[in-house]
């Protein structure tokens, strides 16, 4: 098992300093080692277009602002901190579940877009993806809160990678349930909290709703909804759903994270398991145990 954190700092600096006409090609070259992130997409994927869609740093504006933010990431030691955190987390997880598959992992850290109101607002300057085994994607703006949570964010995404490696937990985009997604977010946060504590381990966008019983009840009502196309509103909230053309359901940003944490905490309390122990637990077991414990 090898974890490779791509050194995107010099590449991003080169892109941001280059003549405008050269930037797309330089960016494409930087992103190519992580192109496997999109291996399940149909046809050829335009890496630059995906970068733009994912709130990556712009190529035609805010150059100085992005360069300053890039230096903030560099000064924070972001790349080395992520690498150390992932090594430590793998060791903890393997100790708890020694039979798991740990794939070779490539990590792509990218600066976000300061002109994207949704990214900087409801998303709190962070998007990330660890659901494709072998790849972690972290796209962020260096708000102090995001810099403080670098390790926890990386470990959260690692948890998704390990949960779905080599079919350890089934994932069919057409039939997977909101319940699986919500539980997986709660388990990933719980693992990050096991390593870094509650202050840093929770996904930020879910924190305001942890104690909101109405939000929890609403998310629970949708746990049986199937199909990835329906997940956005239930997990990330209405604002993100509208942003990407999905239907809102009446939930605030991060609602699924808040509900997932509550479900997982109730399950862990009822069973005595640690978050690391529960890496591969069936989401239906988590939900049934948690709701039984909280009924």
Biggest beta sheet summary: 4 strands, mixed
State mean pLDDT (0 to 100 scale). 94
Q: What fraction, in percent, of the residue positions are helical? A: 40-55%
Taken together, the total number of domains comes to: 2
Structural class: alpha/beta
User: What sequence of helices (H) and strands (E) makes up the elements?
Assistant: EHHHHHEHEEHHHHHHHHH
The DSSP helix count reads 15
Beta-strand level of the residues, as a percent range? 5-15%
Radius of gyration: 19 Å
Distance between the termini: 43 Å
Query: Looking at the structure, what is the overall shape?
Result: globular
Domain DUF2268: 102-287
Pfam family, one: DUF2268
Per-chain topology:
Elements: E1 3-5, H1 8-17, H2 23-31, H3 47-53, H4 63-75, H5 78-96, E2 105-111, H6 117-120, E3 126-129, E4 135-140, H7 144-148, H8 150-163, H9 178-196, H10 198-201, H11 213-221, H12 231-236, H13 238-243, H14 255-271, H15 283-294
Keywords:
295 residues, 2 domains, 4 strands
Structure commentary:
InterPro entries: DUF2268. The chain has 15 helices and 4 strands. With 295 residues, it is an alpha/beta fold. The chain has 2 domains: 168 residues, no CATH class; 124 residues, no CATH class. It has a 4-stranded mixed beta sheet. Helix 5 packs across helix 8, helix 11 packs across helix 14 and helix 14 crosses helix 15. The longest helix has 19 residues. The protein is globular, with a radius of gyration of 19 Å. The mean pLDDT is 94.
